[in-house]
Automatic annotation (TrEMBL):
It comes from Celeribacter persicus. This is LysR family pca operon transcriptional activator. PANTHER family: HTH-TYPE TRANSCRIPTIONAL REGULATOR YBHD, NITROGEN ASSIMILATION TRANSCRIPTIONAL ACTIVATOR-RELATED. Residues 7-64 form the HTH lysR-type domain. It comes from the Bacteria.
Amino acid sequence: MNIPNGMKLRHLEAFLSVAEVGTISAAARERHVSQPALSKTIAELEAQLGTPLFTRTGRQAVLTPAGEAFRRHALSSLQSLEAGVRAITGGGRTDVVKVGVLPTVASGLFPAVALEFSELRPDARIAVITGPNRYLIDRMRSGGLDLVVGRMAPARDMAGLSFEYLYDETVYLVARKDHPGLGLSPVEALRRYPVILPNPGSIIRQQVMQYLIASGLDETVNVRFETVARPVGLPLVERSDMLWFISRGVVERELSEGRLSTLDLGVDYMTGAVGLTRKFDFTRDSPADFLASLLHRRAKEFSAR
């Protein structure tokens, strides 16, 4: 074996922890050790391998190309070791499927699939992280996520990743049910009333800006907030005359209950594909792969409805 004599399990666990959370300090807290002790462990591993595994930028620890390559093998090695222990003992640590979910799809299809997964796979649990698309994709590349559910990232961010179509979702312009502008055209309503736009980093922002520019409104809209977060946007809309550009899945319940209404934008380019993003080299027959298969199956039913 061409493995350094001094390399131990703690070196690999410390390295993977820093790679996942991105800072020495956060990894030290997670592992309940001091920051100097964890830094020493990482330094020992780098000395054993003869190459830096991280680039330190302020507090951030970013994987080098060598670190990224080593992370894949280290993670696979630990997973194989854990599987071996479970095979012999019949127990061990519960598998964790780490999923990134964009806020615009977090309240639609995903919760139902997550509940089904929990019932069918009691040996595993799901850890969910929400955030902007670019943040989630970066977490996936560093090994912090197994899957990302949401709109497809820009082509420049998709190298080495696959996007698997699930269903189409439309961006709506919504207002409270008794909004005074519901009888107006969308263009006129947007001229008169304050607006909530998606965040600049969100995938649907580009579609919304395309609509505003095409309607001659990009310079005249009274933008008061920017969010795709349901806990923020929903009470703002229900308690005011603001209009909100948001994916249907975020406000599906309120629309079906009649608490919100939509203004018909009359264009087809506000609809986009929602899907599953993961690495090409994902582990087949793993809990993450099982979750992906559930998402595909339930998405067909979701689309039919």
